[in-house]
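[#protein-structures] MJ: dropping isochorismate synthase here for a structure pass
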Amino acid sequence: MSDSALPRLRARTRPISDPGDLLRFAEPQDPAVWLRRGDGIVGGGCLWRGEFQGESRIRDAREVWDAILAQARVEDAVRVPGSGLVAFGAFTFAASSGYASVLQIPQFIIGRMDGKSFLTELFVTDSTVGSGPVPTVPVRLPLIIPDGPEAVTDLEPGEMTQERHREAVECALSRIEQGEFTKIVISRDQHGKIEPDADRRHIVRRLANTYPETWTYAVDGLIGASPEMLVRVLGRSVTARVLAGTLPRGANEADDAAAKRALADSAKNRVEHKFAIDSAIESLRRLDTHDDPDTGLTASPEPFLLGLPNVWHLASDIRGTLPQGSSVLDLVEALHPTAAVGGTPRKKAMPVIDELEPFDRRRYAGPAGWLSASGDGEWVVALRGAEVDADGSVTAFAGGGIVAGSEAADEFAETGPKFRPITEALKPLAE
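AK: finished. structure tokens for isochorismate synthase:
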């Protein structure tokens, strides 16, 4: 994509009074959303959209973004994460996917971060426009869009039936025993259909309200509430959250406490978690080619138990400093796919996923998030959600890590609670 084909953009961010529910300003059919605990950013309209495919899709997106920034003008009077010129993005899990990875820039962004509310207005200019400031006009909030029809459907099993899943897990275990790899993630699919004119914001709102501690995302029809932060860059500070090892929550207090203890004591889940942590740290260290003592990485000495309404996870946080000359998309490319959604070793496990899963994962378990002209960005692993197509078709995925000692029946059962967030978000409000 040549620079001449890219838009010349101006972005102006100004403070506003607290706008309340940010979702009221999102597009009903194609919301662009990033929320946690009620705060975040929402985009409206689409000023520019780029599509990328193949092995270099993330690298190509970074080059295009850099080219857009090189000819953009940004006036940011707020300067918090998510202000200024921002693009939302979602990348496919596999390079071989037949679906597009995207970056898209909205016509406006309304947000609330760090106690500050703001509105970013974006404009396409041409080369004849001077370098002076954008003319000052009063701040006018975008129109609030009333709620449309509910987005409801029952998800039904897809191509990966329970029997087919059992066969895939047993094949994976055999190949683990032969030493081909030590871990692989096998997922299954579910499908449904909402009305084409249904308001997708209903799905986003239910996820955000039910799972406020996760990162609720909506980008180009990909909607979910992920508990796993692939990478966050604020300034030069880098953080990532790794999840691997899962058990369902108990039905009552005693059962829940027992499930929590069982996960903490599970040798199988701890091994799975260690694979994921080691893989993430190795990926980040390979990226740092500079002699920079400030980029050292630290991880939680022991995994902690993260309780969500549907499951317990073993979790660890990684912290470090952005290597000089790197961007958040460089980190996204280095980390994806994590061992938590791919396998170990990565290069051995990925082709086998293609063999054992009878579908294209699309952007499930791929990176989804945002990045800004200031260099900030937040990207999750796209979990606990679904692809919602323009015609209303809904495709959801959930998976689990297979290591030595895994049981096929247990692995199939583990995916049930992972479908629960999107399944419940698609139920009628009366239920």
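MJ: nice. The chain is about 25% helix and 30% strand.
AK: one more thing. Residues 287 and 334 are 7 Å apart (CA to CA).
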